[in-house]
Specification:
Elements: H1 33-36, H2 47-51, H3 63-66, H4 70-85
Length: 95
Amino acid sequence: MGSQSRPYGGPRREGGPGGGGKRQFSRRRKVCRFCADKIDHIDYKDVRLLGQFIPERGKILPMRTSGTCAPHQRRLMRAIKRARNIAFLPFTADI
């Protein structure tokens, strides 16, 4: 199998330096901030809270980056979109 050519490139790598090693550390599991603080309602007028989930580019952070759970991520997205609609938050970053 190692000598057969693959459709998208050269022969398969058999091993060697730089790959396949065990992880030396495990990442700490992110905890939903809203679940930890027992916040049920995410207010679209709370610009300081919503701004923590929007980087400089103006995009909404995904769940894997922000650590929010699925129900709170949906509420957060809804609140950010409402705040953008009434000009509490910018749609894009200032250039």
